[in-house]
Design brief:
By secondary structure, the protein is of the alpha+beta class. The protein is built from 3 helices and 10 strands, in the order αββαββββαββββ. It has a 10-stranded antiparallel sheet, sandwiched between helices.
């Protein structure tokens, strides 16, 4: 969901274009974004490695996979798989590939700031740069913690603040969460 808005636009355009009708069978998709630290390639559900698709469907039963991105960042390879739960709500799962082994590292969804725990809201309010977030992504981690990515008005690309809640305690992160 870090690029949810971009993925949603891409998914809509792909749907309108006839589900990638212009690409030949077996042809790899072109990268959608290149930067010095991250290379991203758009994928459709059929292009996901089988193990990634199985992990995602096991973690979110009934998910309708709508698309994915393969990302190479700082020597790590991720698959950001986007879809809808059986109830229609949007979800993204980040799957890390380490040495050919796949592991879900976080499950993300957008939430209203009022749904975040009071401890997270209090930590953000007490930070050096308090603000009212215009977007909040809740990222459940495999270590049991939850990261709340808070986006400021006019800055949709990177969270302005991240708050980690673990074992009931909230703290503002000083460094960007690695996933």
């Amino acid at each position: 969901m870090k690029h949810w808005h971009q993925a949603l636009v891409c998914a809509t355009l792909i749907s309108l274009a006839g589900c990638d009708a212009g690409r030949k069978s077996g042809e790899q998709p072109a990268p959608i974004e290149q930067s010095s630290s991250t290379a991203e390639t758009e994928l459709d559900a059929a292009s996901l490695p089988g193990e990634v698709a199985r992990l995602v469907t096991d973690a979110v039963p009934g998910i309708q996979i709508q698309g994915a991105e393969r990302k190479e960042r700082e020597g790590r390879v991720y698959y950001d798989v986007e879809g809808k739960r059986a109830d229609g709500s949007e979800v993204e799962l980040d799957v890390l590939n380490e040495g050919g082994r796949y592991e879900i590292v976080e499950i993300q969804r957008d939430i209203p700031w009022t749904e975040a725990p009071e401890s997270a809201r209090s930590a953000a309010a007490a930070s050096a740069k308090p603000f009212e977030p215009v977007r909040v992504i809740e990222s459940k981690q495999t270590d049991g913690s939850v990261i709340y990515e808070l986006f400021a008005d006019g800055a949709p690309q990177k969270p302005a603040l991240e708050v980690q809640v673990k074992d009931g305690k909230a703290e503002v992160l000083r460094e960007e969460w690695p996933h």
